[in-house]
Amino acid sequence: MAGRDPDRGKTVTTVLGRRLGGELLRLREACGLRQAQAAEALTASVAKVAKIERGQVPMRDPDVRALCRLYGESDEVVIGKLLALAKADRERRRARGWWNQYPQLRAMVEYVALEDIATGVRTWQGAIVPGLLQTPDYARALAVGNGNWEDPDEIEPFVESRMARQARLHGESPLELWAVVHEGALRQLVGGRDVMRAQLEHLLDMARRPNVKLQVLPFLAGAHPGMTSAFTIVSFAEPGALDVVHVDTTSSTLWLESDTDADHHNGLFDRITRMSLAQRNSVKLIDGIHKEL
C-alpha cells in the first residue's frame, strides 16, 4: 500500500528539480515501467512520483538509489550525477537567502538562488558587462536605459540586489567566474564616459582575482558562434554534477535543462573562448579602451 506523501503541499518546482525529474523520467520510460511501479518501489503514491518527475518535490538519496535499481541503472557515474543534482536541489529549496527581500529581481530570483549554491559560472555576454562584474553606476544606467520599470523607485533596490550578488566572488569559498565579453560591450558608453571609465577600472581590478577569468572577444574576430544570444552555464560542487544553462531573451528568461542543451552550450562557450583574446591580452585591450576615455 502506498505510504503517506510527506511532501504534500511542497510542490514548488525548481530548475534543479526539473532536471533531476526529467532524468528519472527518461530512465523509467527507457525500461518501460509505469509510475505505479516506481511508487511501489518508494512506498509512496503515484502522485508523489508524478511530482518528482515534474521537479516539484525534493528527493532523498535513498529514493534516488531505489529508482536507479528499479530502472536497471547501475553506472555509478550516472548515479553519482543524479545524487549530486538531488543534493544541490535540496540545498536550493532550503535556502532563505537575501534575494527574497528584492521583488525587483522578478524572473532572476531562481537564477540568483542557483548562483548562490554554485561553485562555477561561465558566462558569455555580447552586449553588456556581466552582472557579477558591474559597478553600481553601470547597473543603474542599464536599469534606467531599459525603460521597462513601472515604478522608478524600484531601480535603486534592483541595483542593490545586483551588488549583493557580487559577494559570491569573495570570501572563503568564492565562486569561480569565467566571463567572456564582446569588445562592443566595453566601448558602449553606458551612463557616459565617467561611468564607463570606472566600469573598465573595476574590470581590470576584478581580472586580478584568482577566481575570475576574463576574456574579451574582439571586433577583429569577425563572425562567431555567440552572435545570436548571451547565455550563462551554472555548475555545482560535486565532480560531474549536471550543468544548467540560463538564457536571457528580450521578452523572457529561459532555462535549458537537458544534457543535450548543456553539452551544446559548453561547446559554444569553448568555441567562443578560443576566438577570444587570452586574459593577458584582454586586460591590455580593456586598459587601452580605458585610456581612450
Mean pLDDT: 87
Gross morphology is: elongated
Strand-residue fraction? 5-15%
State the CATH topology of the largest domain: Endonuclease, Chain A
Order of helices and strands: HHHHHHEHHEHHEEEEHH
The CATH architecture name of the largest domain reads 2-Layer Sandwich
Structural class: alpha/beta
- By CATH reckoning, the class of the largest domain would read Alpha Beta
Indicate the low-confidence ranges by residue numbers: 1-9
Gyration radius, rounded: 21 Å
User: Total strand count, please?
Assistant: 6
- Helices, by number, come to 12
Please name the fourth-level CATH homologous superfamily of the largest domain.
Endonuclease Chain A
Number of domains: 2
Q: Distance between termini?
A: 73 Å
Q: What characterizes the major β-sheet?
A: 6 strands, mixed
Q: Helix fraction?
A: 40-55%
* Spatial strand sequence of the major β-sheet: 3-2-1-4-5-6
Describe the protein.
The chain has 293 residues and is of the alpha/beta class. Helices cover 48% and strands 11% of the residues. The chain folds into two domains: 80 residues, 434 Repressor (Amino-terminal Domain), CATH 1.10.260; 195 residues, Endonuclease Chain A (Endonuclease, Chain A, 2-Layer Sandwich). It contains twelve helices and six strands. A six-stranded mixed beta sheet has the order 3-2-1-4-5-6, with helices on both faces. Helix 4 packs antiparallel against helix 5. It is elongated. The N terminus is likely disordered.
Which descriptors would you attach to this protein?
single chain; 293 residues; alpha/beta; Endonuclease, Chain A; six-stranded mixed β-sheet
